[in-house]
From TrEMBL, chains A, B:
The keyword Glycoprotein does not apply. One of its GO terms (molecular function) is transcription cis-regulatory region binding. Residues 12-66 form the HTH lacI-type domain. InterPro entries: HTH_LacI, LacI/GalR-like_sensor, Lambda_DNA-bd_dom_sf, Peripla_BP_I. This is LacI family transcriptional regulator. It holds the Pfam family Peripla_BP_3. Keywords: DNA-binding, Transcription, Transcription regulation. PANTHER family: LACI-RELATED TRANSCRIPTIONAL REPRESSOR, LACTOSE OPERON REPRESSOR.
Length: 359, 359
DNA sequence: ATGAAAGCGCTAACAA
DNA sequence: TTGTTAGCGCTTTCAT
């Protein structure tokens, strides 16, 4: 590395490159931007100087004057959730393919941090902000999101809501999500077709739009099969493996008035499976279990889990694709992505004796 | 929202806030920065104006003149790998706790994209760049990393290598990793203690430093137990569930001269378990299996997987903690994090008849 | 207590 | 073909 003493304090600037190449900063800028005719001779000199000095342009200065780098920000609860991670990967992939930079922020489910992060993204000049995951939709939420949307829109950025509803169709935000109700109805139907009549929904999260929709689908399927309304049995234990485990253990301790479990998502299913095994029962022999999302390892559960496949990566891709395609912020546009059942080994007809039996 | 017509083109600037508050931009800056005495009266006026206009400072302009936001960048293969995701979460958490912004970039394993991303982070002015995950350590790698380190260092930034070696102790980079060899030796010892003598290592990746270290630990344990060198049987199928599944199927088709499998990581183990089950054999009755990393769902495999716990989130936290603590770029500093075995149900003594038997 | 003005590193007119 | 110059939005002396 041909190192001068020019590099004494911090980063190399365009001026130093210019000096070394014996040209003006304008020329260097032109060469580096590549959108302006420059004779090969000087071009080479400049390039050499830049390489020798290991120069990289200051993105902030660039952003200040010109467009700046296109940047998309994804905000999610946590990256360690397989489902969210896949969505993030989808966004990242689609963004990278277009030469956009992708920033991932996590909130741990705290609306305060979400707000903070969106603010931050406004400061950084993100052109596209994607909020991922279901939320409880109360007045505070509606107001908050309306503010995001307005503010982002005012500075020419776009807001996409992934798997959460728009607070109001008039707001400048795109919505992309799965048809949770349809998916839930389908998999409940699958259980019903196998002969189950007493199915508990494990993992309700009242107020959470995604879960509420699944519960709605579950109830709808029950109704379609002519079951009375009180056949529905929803346990609002929330999401996560631990919650599923705890709730299932509790449930098995009290009553066994059910032959199948519809878990709110695959992590809940994992916890439930473990709890069932701990109780000395077998899946699907004694109890059938289904999940939601088809995370990559659902196939490796014991037994392999029958679940609803929600193409998470595609959700992420779709979010950026749609946002970038659609030229005017077609307010209130709502995109629903389809899902389908993946049948594996966690469902079979209920035990004939009418209830689960100890092994 | 008290909206003026000031907001016509793009973002609200500090000047508009100044006008609305009837003060100079300097005063606004002082109020917003909060590091300068300002009389409460004007302070309130400015704050009100800023809120009315929904003003957010331009981070790029700020970065240009002063410190700019502290930013740490994590580079990894993919976020959908549970292990990497946890490392990223650790980095994110530790960074957020200090008010730093965290950027996640993925490379898909392509050194070219890694280089590109590091370059990008230099442009954006990241103060800390963390490269995560093992790599093949060839001359190209060494040269590339040396360049990163030098360049980053020249602009006052820091480089941390997580789970990959420093190309040369003189380079200004920190290394934080697990003691792969010790972990592998321990779990191999666990298998040997159970009575296994013919153990295959599934998931070698020659050149990959992390895997090579595990293979070394495996060999060391074998040697310690007085087994001949040729007792080692390493299958270089690489990582990932698919690879593990394929390689294991192949292996079962040909020979069964082994009673236990040491999978290079838990995803490989997942694939192997599936392949073994597909072949009509049972774990651990016919074959014992162990993994590496203890990903969150390892407990839900069939059977629950005995594996080596590598506290991934702690690795991420440690990376930023150490990098931020240590004031001079203590070149070549090497930090080793400990691991331990998590015993579950995938290991038992080998079948007494001397080999696996069909069910 | 507050304003005016000088840049931060870069790009894009405008000159030469 | 290349150089000069005026900002981009902000912070920070230096005056007032």
């Amino acid at each position: 590395m041909g190192s001068d003493m020019t590099t004494s304090k911090g980063r190399v600037t365009i001026r130093e490159v210019a000096e070394r190449a014996g040209v003006s900063v304008a020329t260097v800028s032109r060469v580096l931007s590549g959108n302006y005719p420059v004779p090969p001779a000087t071009r080479t000199r400049v390039l050499r100087a830049a390489r020798d000095l290991d120069y990289v342009a200051n993105a902030h200065a660039r952003a200040l004057v010109g467009g700046g780098r296109k940047m998309v920000a994804v905000v999610l609860r946590q990256v360690t959730s397989p489902f969210y991670a896949q969505v993030a990967e989808g966004v990242e992939a689609e963004a990278a393919a277009r030469g956009w930079l992708c920033l991932v922020g996590t909130t741990g489910g705290d609306p305060g941090r979400e707000l903070e992060f969106v603010q931050l993204m406004r400061e950084e000049g993100a052109r596209l902000v994607i909020l991922v995951g279901g939320v409880v939709e109360d007045d505070a939420y509606r107001e908050r999101v309306a503010r995001y949307a307005q503010a982002l829109d005012a500075s020419g950025a776009r807001l996409v809501l992934c798997g959460r509803p728009a607070p109001d169709p008039g707001i400048p935000a795109l919505v992309v999500e799965f048809d949770n109700e349809a998916g839930a109805r389908a998999i409940t139907g699958h259980l019903l077709s196998a002969g189950h009549r007493r199915i508990v929904f494990l993992g309700g999260l009242p107020g959470n739009t995604a879960l509420d929709a699944r519960v709605a689908g579950y109830r709808a399927a029950l109704a379609e099969h002519g079951l009375p309304t009180d056949a529905a049995h929803v346990i609002d234990c929330g999401l996560g493996r631990a919650a599923g485990h705890r709730a299932m253990s509790e449930l098995l301790k009290n009553t066994r008035e059910f032959t199948a479990v519809f878990a709110g998502d695959d992590m809940v299913a994992a916890g439930a499976l473990r709890a069932i095994a701990d109780a000395g029962l077998r899946v699907p022999h004694d109890i059938s279990v289904v999940g939601y999302n088809d995370i990559p390892l659902a196939e490796d559960f014991n037994p392999p889990l029958t679940t609803v496949r929600t193409p998470a990566e595609e959700l992420g891709r779709a979010a950026v694709r749609i946002a970038l395609r659609d030229p005017d912020h077609t307010a209130g546009t709502h995109h629903l992505l389809g899902t389908h059942i993946v049948v594996r080994d966690s469902v079979q007809p209920p035990p004939t004796d009418g209830g689960p039996t100890p092994v």
